[in-house]
Design brief:
This protein is an alpha/beta fold and 323 residues long. It has helices spanning 24-35, 51-55, 73-80, 95-100, 102-122, 156-175, 201-210, 230-242, 263-274, 298-304, 312-322; strands at residues 15-19, 39-44, 63-67, 85-88, 127-133, 178-184, 187-188, 216-218, 224-225, 228-229, 251-255, 261-262, 281-283. It binds nicotinamide-adenine-dinucleotide (NAD).
Amino acid sequence: MYDQPYHLGDLSNQKILITGGAGFIGSHLTEYLLKYGAIVRVIDNFITGRRENIDLFKNNPRFEFIEGDICNKADCDRACDGMNSLLHQAALGSVPRSIKDPVATNRINVDGFLTMMIAARDAGIQRVVYASSSSVYGDHPGLPKVEDKIGKQLSPYAVSKYTNELYAHVFGLNYGMKIIGLRYFNIFGPRQDPNGQYAAVIPKWIDMLKKNERPVINGDGSNTRDFTFVENAVQANIKAMTTENKNAFGQIYNIACGYQFSLMDLFNSLKEIIGANTEPVFGPKREGDIPQSLADVNKAKKLFGYNPEFAFKDGLKITVEDF
Ligand SMILES: NC(=O)c1ccc[n+]([C@@H]2O[C@H](COP(=O)([O-])OP(=O)(O)OC[C@H]3O[C@@H](n4cnc5c(N)ncnc54)[C@H](O)[C@@H]3O)[C@@H](O)[C@H]2O)c1
């Protein structure tokens, strides 16, 4: 992966802070940036991240790790000190988890976001890219999803991500920071955790199909998602972090492929790639789930040159091979 650079110029004088760098997407950003010579500092408290994700980098002299909490201002200050840019990935994921425990989601995703943004402001970090989510679209019926047409959020997780977007706007206005929000649509790829009650569907199903177990499809399998390979999300972060287009700052962008696949399509593709011989079990619908998800990605293409190069099936093959 990451055989081609997505940035122009030299990153070797860039000091980049990645929050949640022991997690799935954060560890890919770390991998990319170290590969192209940047100095990378990660802050993570391992609430969902894994030590093995950063073990890959621990012998790299350009890598530094801080075990800390984004809800703690002193930890955030230490993490931001001397950095040029912030890629904020740390959050508590999962819609069902947020429905079960809205307070925990709010504490990390809203209070933690705010604490980290204040630390970035105080440290003079101008460039910030942060992870938002397609869940912000809530009950808006329009397809494909266009950034400025959102409905009412359907879960505490979606509320937390929407709140990030509102704060990001206000921080740009009042403190002159150049902030870009990325609404990720179902990102998948190597290192995504297959374990636990709140695991994402792709790693969970790969794990089960490899063990010849039968995955549960919530609903009838017709729900669609704009599944997006992680290298596309890394490309978006790098291009957003390095763009010099003034019109790109203070905005939010869909990060996806612009194609939708149903859960049945996903099941059949994985079954074929893995060579499994099993059928799914159909279970009840999940609370807070949106039936269809498809992104219009033209805004990110136009304003900072995002160009998702990895198609759904190619990404699935790489993910299965790596598993
Ligand atoms: N994966 C997706 O499909 C997807 C979709 C939409 C949005 N997102 C967002 O993208 C970001 C990254 O998601 P991911 O899939 O890599 O999840 P992940 O759980 O693998 O990574 C999140 C990381 O943040 C860390 N973290 C959480 N709370 C922390 C705290 N208080 N202090 C320090 N570190 C903390 C976790 O330990 C973990 O390493 C999150 O903000 C998530 O909400 C992801």
